[in-house]
Amino acid sequence: MHHFFVKPTAIIDGEVTITGQDVRHITRSLRLDSGDKISVADGEGKKYIIELVELTEKSVKGKVHQDFVAKVEPDTKVTLVQGLPKSKKMDLIAQKTTELGVEEIIPVETERSIVKLKPSKAKRRQKRWQKIAKEAAKQSGRAKIPEVKELVGFEEIISLAKEYDLALIPWEEEEGSLKEVIAGNNKMERVMIVIGPEGGFSKQEVERAKEAGIKPVSLGSRILRTETAGLATLSMLLYQTGDLG
Question: What is the distance between the terminal CA atoms of the chain, rounded to a whole angstrom?
């Protein structure tokens, strides 16, 4: 079933109104018509099955056929802090972590980041990554669109760590496994995963992270690429908490 996002204000008294670019997609690309059903999410955790009743060039209207609190969103809200990678790797990371169930993504510039973005370019990239996350959320039937935050520095991440029940930093020199750390934490409503860029984290950064309560963990005997590490950690975390598998 085709899936779309609308603002909560677009749902009034059992009627949903879709406007913007999705109208063209519904009417011209998908060629849907009155009587067809689609799913719609309000971005706040609720999904609706609606039956289309009126389609024009400017809007598509439908009546709520079924509504429910979506169960597609993980109980554990995971923030991925991603060291700024080269090329279009961040596009892949935004897309795939959205499919898996990430809550938000924070790009971070670290000591070994090869890519350095000026504020204006960083803002353009943020908009691009947010668009990719939205499309991935539609494709995977999410009830929320993960928010891609503005690019920040490593020290800002350090200050954020205290807001989470658990903060993790995968590091190749660590021996304690992710599974062991997760097993030792009963409360994991909000979790932060901090992933380094291609060159990884410096020892000084890892020490700063430890001081802030961010726990280094091992992902196994093989060293993963930056675009793989976040996906692997998120998958293992959500599997252990019962959301995947």
Answer: 22
Q: Which long-range contacts (CB under 8 A, 24 or more apart) does 54-58 make?
A: 55/23, 55/26, 55/27, 56/23, 57/23, 57/27, 58/19, 58/23
Across the strands, what pairs with 190?
Answer: 77
Residues in contact with 50: Cβ distance below 8 Å, sequence separation at least 6, in sequence order = 16, 37, 38, 39, 40, 62, 63, 64, 65
Helices (H), 140-240: 154-160, 178-183, 203-211, 226-240
Same domain, 223 and 119: yes
With a cut of 90, say whether residue 78 has pLDDT above it.
Answer: yes
| CA atoms of 210 and 214, how far apart (whole Å) | 5
Cα separation of 129 and 136, whole Å? 10
How confident is the model over 121-156, as pLDDT tens digits?
A: 999 999 999 999 999 999 999 999 999 999 999 999
Angle of the 119-139 helix axis to the 89-100 helix axis, nearest 10: 40
Is 138 in the same domain as 236? yes
Residues in the chain: 245
Q: Domains in the chain: how many in total?
A: 2
Torsion angle, alpha carbons of 75, 81, 85, 90, to 10:
30
Strand partners of residue 83: 108
